[in-house]
Amino acid sequence: MFLAIIGLSMMFDLSAQKKVLTMEEAVVGYHLYPRSKYIQWQGDKNQLTYLDREGLMGESVDKGEKSVLLTVAELNRILGAELRGFPNFSWLDDNTLVIARQGSIYHIDVAKKQVKQKFTFPKGAANETYSKAGNMYAYTIDNNLYYMDERGNSYTVTADEDKNIVNGQVVSRNEFGITGGIFWSPDGKKLGFYRKDESQVTNFPLLDINTRTGELKEIKYPMAGMKSELVSLGIYDIASAKTTFLDANDFGREQYLTGITWAPESDMVYVQVLNRGQDHMRLNKYDASTGKLIATLFEEKSNTYVEPQSGLIFLANNPKQFIYSTNNRDGFMNLYLHDVNGKLIRRLTDVDADVEFVAVDPAGKYVYYLSSEISPVEKQLFRVEVKSGKKNRLTTEEGWHNITMSGDCAYFVDNYSSIKVPRNVDLTMNTGKVVRRLQEVENPNKDYNFGEITLGKIKADDGSDLYYRLIKPMDFDPNKKYPVIHYVYGGPHSQLVTNTWNASLRMWEMYMAQHGYVVFVIDNHGTPNRGKAFEDIIHRQCGQVEMKDQVKGIEWLKSFPWVDENRIGVHGWSYGGFMTISLITNYPDIYKVAVAGGPVIDWKWYEVMYGERYMDTPQENPEGYAKTSLIAKAKDLKGKLLICQGAVDPVVVWEQSLSFIRECIKNNVQVDYFPYPCAEHNVMGRDRIHFTKEGYQEQGTLLFRAFMESYNNR
């Protein structure tokens, strides 16, 4: 079995591969990653659709017969456009294609090859959300909510003049699985929406230098321990044009509302109400007409935090039962079957592993889910019989599987890769029997000279497994000593090491390996797919356990004679930037150079939703905030440090890194600093090229290389 022996590796035929990556390829070389077809099911019809040179193709599941559903030329005629290629699309039903273009959304009858319906939105419209039952779209303009009926007439749902009041948009800064702010009822007669009051949230200024005198643009940024946004959920009745707000006041106004789910009958709304401290959640059922609380179905509490990530899934054949997902009961993210009164019927996925819901068939017989139970670095598909609890594994090839079920759950498309397989796409029956291979992607790196990639594991201090990715230099010689680049993220919800093609490396890692560096990555405590205890251990002490795990990995790596322990550097961005500076200041004897991008310096300057989950408030946890703050660590910097910062970063605001620089100045500590004037958090586009590209004074990753070389030459 994969990873049964530590250090399973893949060797490349160096004699056949001659090319070396350019830095531009390493940054934007999309051709170096396995590409797959964008395969969708044609509504509930058991037919696959994808794009090729002829246009939009259809392929029957039984015989594999292929047909051209719509060419680019036909689409241009239908739209009156001059498209060179087929745009992004989705299926509304078996025959209706949905395409968005230039402020309009087109519903296209594929059989008749004509526009079935066109919705043209006013300038500034965003967040367009469709109601299939009502054949209407809800949308926002600025801070207000509107809807458009099937005739193209628009109606105002909210009319707030105060810009602090925001309707129909994402709340809680996208935490708790929140991806939108509009929720149509199944019957299309009611429209649920978030209302966010940011009047008490502190403004944070961002400097726009595109004008001669500069201009301050303020964002709402609720910092840990300070006033946060106030969220409510409105229900707008289409017929009466009246709005009712849910009576959700369980924990005061500064609470979180997530997992918004309509009852199949459209008469009730289910909401997971979470206190600001994020350690107490209630699943509440509300009357959609009156907004009154009907019942609290159950509660969840934790000594660390409760983190709801998804809504309820009602069984299609039984609207009185739903599936609920949580990691707060049995130590792992599992699925549970409840009735509408909250009674637990059974635990559906009785495994000591994190699982992810995929689908439930229309008959309500089977639930399909992805699980890490074979290995934490793999995702495999299983199904469980709802009544009996009998479980079957449906994917057998090692690796990371992405699944797209057909509407009737009779088939699924299995898109997977592993360290050995660039990408395979299989059409598979719901029993796990492969019907045929739809695509087999060849190695996109076959013409390049790559170093050896190893995926393995070591033991943490508590005996748990820590998984790593190791890249050896090109033309590796075990008799030589090599410098090490230690790449780190380490934060929650981010798994860097997986059994996927090339072990999910970033191409700049291989670039550095081709230039003589060992590149090492390890996932520490706090990262996902390892259960709640593994994740929660970082609570109130971000960075501390993570550092121990990272250093454990480096100490293991140093045991090899080909590692130059005097030339070890570390690099990371965001939480990884926080980890980077934490490591070089806490372990100056190990790390001689570091490059930190967009680093969190002190958690009291980070936002409420994320920061308070893991650290509580500064008032509740002063010792933890003091211990994790890097302000006090500036004086301990011994090696060479470069900090890169987007100057208009709305995620990790500029105050963070500037405060560290000021502390370095106070302590006469030298540090290199490169702000990107108009860049946000991830420093994208031309700025990203500059950050890494050769010929710009070797900034970024190449400056990292220059640091190592300068150290070596002393």
Describe the structure.
- By secondary structure, this protein is mainly beta.
- It folds into four domains: 8-32 and 444-712, Rossmann fold (3-Layer(aba) Sandwich); 36-154, Lipocalin (Beta Barrel), CATH 2.40.128; 157-308, Dipeptidylpeptidase IV, N-terminal domain (Methanol Dehydrogenase, Chain A); 312-442, TolB, C-terminal domain (Neuraminidase).
- The protein is built from eleven helices and 44 strands.
- The two termini are 47 Å apart.
CATH domain fold name of the largest domain = Rossmann fold
Report, as a whole number of angstroms, the end-to-end distance: 47 Å
How many domains is the backbone divided into? 4
Which overall shape is indicated by the principal axes computed on the Cα atoms? globular
- Given as residue ranges, the uncertain stretches (5+ residues, pLDDT < 50) are 1-17, 694-703
**Helical percent range?**
10-25%
Mind telling me the C-alpha Rg?
Answer: 27 Å
Structural class: mainly beta
The CATH architecture designation of the largest domain is: 3-Layer(aba) Sandwich
The neighbouring-strand order within the major sheet is 1-37-38-40-39-41-42-43-44
- Fourth-level CATH superfamily of the largest domain: Alpha/Beta hydrolase fold, catalytic domain
- Report the sheet with the most strands, covering strand number, pairing sense and barrel closure: 9 strands, mixed
Instruction: Indicate the proportion of strand residues.
Output: 35-45%
